[in-house]
Every structure is written in structure tokens, then in C-alpha cells.
Request: fold
Amino acid sequence: MFIISIDGPAGSGKTSLAAMIEASLASDGEAVYTIHMDDLYNGWSQALTQQLTDSLKEIIRGAKERAILKVPQFDWARGVFGEPLTLPAPTTLILEGVGSGQRVIRDQVSISLWLEAPRELALARTLQRDGEENYRLMARWQIDEAEHFEIEASESAADYRVKSAP
Reply:
């Protein structure tokens, strides 16, 4: 199994890059699937916790040992986890989102990417995508993710670092 992690601040272009990589690999006949960290977070305040780490470890273990993946699915509207998504283990797995490049899974990842954008641009992109009403949540999120990245040394550990274009 080939695993790609795409980490970096919210609004840096991770989802777009993951979609491009997935489409390119799929067009060549590759069995590829992207897991978005947004599906694994336990809401805003419990997103970058041990629960995320445990989910990532279980997904990777399952992908390497079984033919079926069970991927947690957080229901943001209800604020609880719903039924996990069950899917065949692909030959390439993309882990996309803040926290996907954390230390505990690095030895299982084939290629790790770090994307970044200027803080103001990243916030503007995120608010355009998710709505201006999320300004306070996103401002807090930027603090939380920065603390997470510092603890995990996510940027310096990445195999490749990319600056996102405006």
C-alpha cells in the first residue's frame, strides 16, 4: 500500500491537491481513495486530539492488514459520529488535512507533503469556502493547528514543502 499524507494549515490547498492526485492516479487505473481529516475530527474543540491519532493508526493498520477500510464519519450538522464508511482498501491511500502528517504515523507514510499559504490568504480561502459566520471558529482553529504543527514538527518532517499560489 502506498500512502500519501497532505498536511498544512486550513486554506492552503490540501483538498484541491488531493483531488488532483487522486484524479491523475485513477485515470491511470490506480485504485485510490482520499480520506479527509474533516471526517475524522470530533468537532471543532476535539479535532486534533488522541482520537484523531487513534483513527489514523487504525485506518493505516486496517489498510495494510485487510481488504476493507472502516473510516469514521463525523456528522458536523449533528455534532456526532455517524456510521463509518466501509470501502475496499485501495492500492494508494491519500490522507488529507490538518493532522495527517503527525509523528505517530510517519513511518507508515510513503510520501508526505506540506502545503502552506500566507495566514491571511488561508483564512480568506477558508471563509469563502465555509462562510463568514465561521470567522471566530477559524481564527481559533488557526491557533490550534499552529500549536499542533509545532508539537508534531509537521512542516520540517515533510518530504516535500509547497507554497500555495493565490
Remarks:
- The chain has one domain: 2-163.
- The first strand starts at residue 2 and ends at 7.
